[in-house]
User: Which sequence fits this backbone?
């Protein structure tokens, strides 16, 4: 929860099994309001329709625009300068440094422990707020 | 968190095991294209990466390990024949795992 209500999360992953699990886990562990998108392109359309979420979860390897590129695009938009972006990926090699280079805040490797996910997101939100306050 | 609150996670797990069986069919199709289509190997690489990540997250360690091993084989420059054999074995494992998990208790 944030001061203004439930944490709003957008999860972008091309694998439906991950999208439904992330949504279910975050709704239970941190009572988050979770939206999902199956691609970077779908995420950009969704984001254009409303206000930015409190945190974004991005898969890295997706068809079309990948997670790094989506992160870079979002960071060019002033509305997303303060939104934490957390990467979720099965590829552990050098991801964290590339994620940081792209403007990301954290990297959670797949497989991830369901109970850890909410905790890591809340930490990313807290860190970003502290850094920009 | 109460057991009730987590209740539908079981449905999510079952849906995953249904998809695992469907993905096995896709893997067999992909493997059959290796010898004739240049982009099939790259598609297989992305497919294995996704299957491993999801299987690991759902704690299906046998599929996770097998997909990771085949991913390493592919990165090591294996022949199409080796990849086809490994892909076929992985597809069988995925089908068997799916069937076992979906059997009525």
Assistant:
């Amino acid at each position: 929860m944030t001061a203004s209500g439930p944490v709003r999360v957008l999860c972008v992953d091309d694998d439906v099994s991950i999208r439904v699990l992330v949504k279910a886990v975050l709704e239970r562990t941190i009572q988050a309001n979770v939206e999902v998108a199956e691609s970077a392109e779908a995420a950009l359309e969704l984001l254009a329709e409303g206000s930015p979420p409190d945190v974004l979860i991005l898969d890295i390897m997706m068809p079309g625009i990948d997670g790094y590129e989506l992160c870079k695009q979002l960071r060019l938009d002033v509305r997303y300068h303060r939104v934490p972006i957390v990467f979720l990926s099965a590829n552990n090699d050098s991801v964290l440094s590339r994620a940081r280079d792209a403007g990301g805040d954290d990297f959670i490797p797949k497989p991830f422990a369901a109970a850890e996910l909410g905790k890591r997101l809340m930490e990313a939100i807290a860190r970003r707020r502290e850094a920009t306050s | 968190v109460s057991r009730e609150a987590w209740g539908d996670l079981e449905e999510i797990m079952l849906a995953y095991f249904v998809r695992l069986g469907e993905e096995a069919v896709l893997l067999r199709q992909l493997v059959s294209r290796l010898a004739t289509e240049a982009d099939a190997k790259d598609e297989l690489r992305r497919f294995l990466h996704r299957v491993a990540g999801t299987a690991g997250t759902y704690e299906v360690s046998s599929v996770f390990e097998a997909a990771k091993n085949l991913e390493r084989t592919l990165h090591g420059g294996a022949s199409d024949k080796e990849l086809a054999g490994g892909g076929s074995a992985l597809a069988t494992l995925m089908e068997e795992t799916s069937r076992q998990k979906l059997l009525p208790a």
User: Anything to note?
Assistant: The mean pLDDT of chain B is 91.
